[in-house]
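[job 0412] stage=complex_fold ligand=zinc ion status=START
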Amino acid sequence: MQKTNPSLFFVEGEAPGAPGLKGSRCLGCGQTVLLQVAACPRCGQRELDTVCIGQRATLGESAEVFHSADGFEAPYFIGMVATEQGPCTFAPIAAPPGTALRVGMPLRFCLLPRPDGRVGFAYAPAENGA
Ligand SMILES: [Zn+2]
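[job 0412] stage=complex_fold status=DONE, emitting structure tokens
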């Protein structure tokens, strides 16, 4: 399976808890950050576990985008996503056009096959936290 951005996320089987975002957890202070990093940004510890995070998240500010980009058909949504582990990132939001997205809405990570055969990811509204 070819991913749009292999450094950003895991698909099933690549890590415990996958699919989800790729992150690092510091073995020194316990801080969790996005991506695979060489050293903890908080304490400088160089021993970190690579972990799968962001299976569940909460929506922050979001916007509807009206031009297509990188395989996404317009209109689509992009939003600030706060993962349950803490780190925040911008991500596409997989919701039908015209959906009323709101701050604090629960989201879940989902894989999104692209027309070019690669697989990307997005966050979809998770009603009732399901
Ligand atoms: Zn640390």
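The pocket of zinc ion is lined by residues 26, 28-29, 31, 40, 42-43, 45 (CB under 6 Å).
[job 0412] exit 0
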